[in-house]
């Protein structure tokens, strides 16, 4: 039963998912909305508890064993508790204050200010690194190790040149050739991959609904 | 006096829109009526005002405005089962032209979306082929599956990690459990975990989504148990990091540089962080096997990783590694379906060319 029940739930919800695609009636659509918006949110809320448990266990083990860089684990744990306390008792923003006084001079420690003042800039910093990684990846690609890499190199080179005003002036046909590369071979390849992906998704969905693929159950029969 | 009133009335009137008709919008959940009309021939019309009257009511209510070029309006506030009729007013500055009322129409929800019949037939055909190949596989038919270099390299890459005494890192993508790419990745994780359990190689699985984390943990645990090594499973090897995209990327980069895994698997759904992860992995010197169905991220993986599972190969991977007949049947089904799609594209192209040539000849 431990194995059969999840399989039955998957079969029923899988068939229900197909029905929502072909039946527009509110009885089906509203039930689907309840599944997606309410039931999944409740499950998501429970899973956050498991996630937090995982973070704490992972870092407490590191601290206990004094593993390499265990000091960072303290930072993570303290940051987690501080943000949780501010989030629970410090209010969302100055217009919705909480139980704790979180205004220090002109600075507010509300959860929204923590998000916009810390998470957003830190995330942007990581995103900015992408520019440097692109440069190193481009160098790697431009070494033309094999036929595919050479094709990638040549087409990228033409596309880049096609976008530069100076080369446009020298070779007039280059921009339209670059556009042709994007519109014809590139689009054709993308659509080819798209067909494969769609069929792969169909096959995987079918395998899951019919219980052939049970990896998500944790494997086993 | 009477004459001046008549003249004023004529001057204040525009030619009204004609043929106002109302009908229920088909294939929807109800509550929507489409109102259509023929535009007023007067070029000075600025907009059309749509009026509605429920059966039995005496008042006409304005329910919306449409631009001067519009000839259709959707009343999205109609109650199911209530008969309504509509009038359309052409408006230009102070002038108005009022149409005759339409007939009554009722909004109603439908039980079947007829607009989806072609896609239902297409999907049904594809499914029939899949069921046929499953049946063939069940009967033990030999299935030829082309070699996929990235998957052939899995064992070698894990062997390398074992020899070097370093861990294997498995990133199951950044999407949620309702993404099929994530499910495909978890299926591959199960096969990879079986091999790491056999080889005794430490496995690290950081997760971005708490639900994916719980499933991944069970997958790895069961895989260790299925190869007779439940004791080797380290519950702390599968963990939740954060649900913030770039915080997750930073944390995984940290793991790559601190733990120095010999093999990195980046399999599942990725967005802008794909290159940040793949380049850091390449810098750390790990053998990298990536796989995604995010077409825009594929060039990054192809550039920075040793092997890349492109699109459908991601979905074929668990079958390819496990060699389980029924799963292989699904890959064969995919191949047959692709063959049919290819034949249809070729046929369609030839037909289009033939029609084009004939039209050119006529011209």
From TrEMBL, chain A:
The chain crosses the membrane at residues 7-27, 39-60, 72-92, 112-139, 151-171, 191-210. It comes from candidate division WOR-3 bacterium. Keywords: Membrane, Transmembrane, Transmembrane helix. It comes from the Bacteria. This is Uncharacterized protein.
From TrEMBL, chain B:
InterPro entries: DUF6754 (IPR046642), FN3_dom (IPR003961), FN3_sf (IPR036116), Ig-like_fold (IPR013783). The chain crosses the membrane at residues 117-134, 339-359. Coiled coil: none annotated. Keywords: Membrane, Signal, Transmembrane, Transmembrane helix. Pfam families: DUF6754. It comes from the Bacteria. This is Fibronectin type III domain-containing protein. It comes from candidate division WOR-3 bacterium.
